[in-house]
Amino acid sequence: MSAKPQPYLIKVKNSDGGDPRFFDTLKGRWVVSASTDEVATFEAALQKARLQHLARHFRNDHLQLILLPTEDCNFRCVYCYEDFQLGRMRPEVQQGIRRLVRKRAPGLKALEIGWFGGEPLTAYDVVLDLTRYFVRTAKEHDVLLLQRMTTNGYLLTPDRFEELHGLGLRNYQVTLDGSEEEHDKKRIGKGGFRTFGVIWNNLEFMKDSRFDYVVTIRVNIDRENLTHMPAFIERLASTFGPDRRFRLHLHKVGRWGGANDASLETIDDERALLRLYRLARDAGVRLDLDMKPGSKVCYAALPYSFVVRADGRINKCTVALEEAENQVGRILADGSLLLNSERLRPWILDGSLADPVCQTCAIRPLCEGNACPWVRIRDGKRPCPPLRGLAQDYLELQASGPPV
Asked: What is the pTM (predicted TM-score) of this model?
């Protein structure tokens, strides 16, 4: 007889000195009454998790396109995994994207556009041209258009920020790897120029504007900048902490397939990030810690998400771009997607619906067994998110930090 699976309801205590925000934040998602029969509740909760997964996962009214308008970059970051061999997006690829969106728009509720690279702002004209098309088409068909950009921030000048804001782009991720000294050792301009000062000035301009937007400041953590982070967090807090539009995301540097992988001073301790998050919370910095169901599911696991490369290849993931398993098709100039079903299947079907361990895991509602499908495909391992085992700590952080 097999062992009965354990309830995925996590027991948490109010460690926030009685602050009502703690339970108010978690109520209805993670917290149940002390008198609740958790074993009985588990079966209903497990079924709910399955239904949430299916409803969010298998739908045809959403389309998510992660677009690489160029695969070149004005930076040469030491941990970067890209080879910069492809430049600007080909005209026929741009035409294919327009026609794909035009075909799909009548049946869509939401169109999600993510700008990636290389550095997308080095092909600013491509970004502008396609964005204007998306805005017109979404308005014509009453489609919700959601836009975001991952940018190094160097070319996000005041003029460009205002122009993109006018086109509805309101969500950015910009990386600062600590203090000016630490950042400029890692995020080096092509040819060797320093980058921190220009990025910081661009962010300060955004802060001084009255526009509505969100900027996630990402910090990549390794052994070299770890000890300098407390001082940098204090600087972030004094400049951006009071502003609800800015939030902090910490990420451990990884060996992602770049030329410098062997020399990277990576860290494995997730608690090191937890300590920094707590320091940032106490300093008044808003944290990028979404703990809602599905929040840790990788975009690459979604059947309606595609990475469109500059030469028209379709990938699922923005890492390991040249690996065969990650190249699942091609977009044609007429807007057709030629997809390889054998390569596509492991990305979208091998999560918690197929993995019996994931089905009864405590944090299944967060990641659905798909925190990183590439780990499962490449290594044959279950891709547990880094916060596994620290869910209570992160829940407390989210509940007790400044509201976002």
From this structure: 0.88
